[in-house]
């Protein structure tokens, strides 16, 4: 019995040791530079969707990230600050990054995995430039362009295979190279279109572009589909660069491309990204509809977090009320003007773009003077004195109520992270646009005309 138990116990011990070794942290030491006093660095894990939320770290002389790495073959991160870098880590590894703040491709890596990280951060990995054919001219045919791109890609694949021993790392690099091929081929269309746009009139270019894009798409999409079908969707979506390549195809050439190749998870990601990148949609009821459309748990978690974070500013919800002071020191609330639409300009005397837009805002107020709408200008200067001095030195506009907010809760509640910021509230005191169009935009006039007659 003891003889039988011994191999089993040794096997269990072996498994436990393997689990312990896999659960080790990786250490990334990032040598800071003066630029990061303003732009903190952050590491974001490359998941299937590049959507893991980041934690911002205040910079010092250097920054040390401790990363929980579960894959013994290694995991990938993106380092964001002034630029962006790829970072490859393994359990227990220590990577030192001496960042070049002027030219990121000259950043130096030392410690473990220095060669792998240097490879991932060559200019061609960061900007796709390596695959471009040399001496490209407007006379270069697409067939010749394509041949040279594939030749460059095959050469790079052979090089990476000859240098690195890790099978997973080599396969990962080859996958990225293949999707760089897709992006580089797509650039033939963009290069040709830019050249012709300079030579032709607008009408002639539109006709040329329609025919050229149709012909280009047929041959390009055939190659793009072939490359995509070499890989499972989960293999592709774990890298930022491959996801970006797909986004470019879907956005510029064929909106249904992802569905045609069976990349259903990407379709969900892309649909969500379109909303996340457009504040006019991000704060609309459209966000509330996403949970019923999403099947993937990763994207569903992200959607639910956005809903939780933005629920109070979605179109149609009750506006949050706050009290401000006017120039005479009297208290005013937003709800004092319930019953009419309210268009709010959030600004400060230290904000030059705000002051540049002020005349346009005031002109809009004069234009709508006879209509049922209230224009309110809210200063978020820390103290009232600079605000008062500024207003006393500038002409007042009759239809603009000037208010001052010393309440940080107002900025937090309405997510005032940048100014100038404009907010539109309807006559029922409900949010119409938490991030409204700026004065001077045609869409704003149409919207104001609408809320004035509702």
From TrEMBL:
The chain positions of domain Thioredoxin read 313-454
Task: List the protein's name.
Answer: TlpA family protein disulfide reductase
Species of provenance = Butyricimonas hominis
């Amino acid at each position: 019995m003891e003889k039988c138990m011994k191999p089993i116990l040794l096997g269990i011990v072996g498994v436990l040791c393997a689990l312990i070794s896999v659960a080790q942290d990786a250490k990334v030491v990032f040598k800071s530079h003066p630029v990061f006093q303003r732009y903190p660095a952050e590491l974001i894990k490359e998941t299937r969707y590049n959507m893991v939320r980041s934690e911002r770290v205040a910079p010092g002389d250097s920054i040390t990230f401790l990363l929980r790495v579960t894959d013994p073959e290694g995991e990938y991160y993106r380092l964001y600050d002034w630029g962006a870098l790829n970072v490859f880590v393994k359990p227990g590894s220590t990577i030192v990054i001496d960042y070049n703040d002027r030219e990121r491709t000259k950043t130096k890596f030392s410690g473990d995995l220095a060669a792998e990280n240097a490879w991932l951060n060559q200019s061609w990995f960061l900007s796709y430039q390596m695959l471009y054919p040399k001496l490209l001219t407007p006379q270069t045919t697409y067939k010749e362009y394509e041949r040279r791109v594939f030749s460059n890609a095959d050469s790079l694949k052979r090089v990476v295979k000859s240098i690195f021993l890790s099978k997973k790392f080599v396969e990962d690099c080859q996958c990225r190279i293949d999707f760089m091929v897709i992006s580089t081929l797509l650039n033939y269309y963009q290069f040709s279109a830019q050249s012709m746009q300079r030579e032709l009139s607008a009408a002639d270019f539109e006709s040329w572009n329609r025919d050229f894009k149709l012909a280009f798409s047929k041959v390009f999409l055939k190659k793009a589909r072939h490359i995509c079908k070499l890989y499972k969707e989960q293999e592709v979506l774990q890298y930022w660069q491959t996801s970006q390549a797909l986004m470019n195809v879907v956005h510029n050439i064929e909106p249904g491309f992802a569905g045609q190749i069976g990349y259903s998870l990407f379709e969900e990601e892309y649909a969500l990204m379109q909303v996340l990148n457009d504040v006019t949609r991000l704060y609309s009821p459209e966000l509330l509809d996403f949970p019923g459309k999403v099947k993937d748990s990763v994207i569903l978690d992200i959607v639910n977090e956005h809903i939780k974070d933005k629920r109070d500013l979605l179109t149609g919800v009750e506006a949050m009320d706050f009290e401000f002071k006017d120039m005479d020191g009297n208290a005013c609330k937003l709800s004092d003007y319930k019953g009419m639409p309210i268009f709010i300009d959030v600004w400060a005397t230290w904000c030059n773009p705000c002051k540049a837009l002020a005349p346009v805002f005031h002109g809009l107020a004069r234009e709508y003077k006879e209509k049922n709408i209230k224009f309110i200008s809210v200063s978020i200067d820390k103290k009232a004195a600079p605000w008062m001095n500024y207003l006393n030195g500038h002409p007042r506009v009759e239809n603009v109520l000037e208010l001052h907010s010393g309440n940080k809760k107002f900025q937090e509640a309405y997510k005032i992270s940048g100014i100038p910021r404009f907010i539109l509230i309807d006559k029922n005191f409900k949010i119409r646009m938490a991030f409204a169009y700026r004065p001077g935009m045609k869409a704003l006039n149409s919207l104001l005309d609408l809320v004035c007659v509702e």
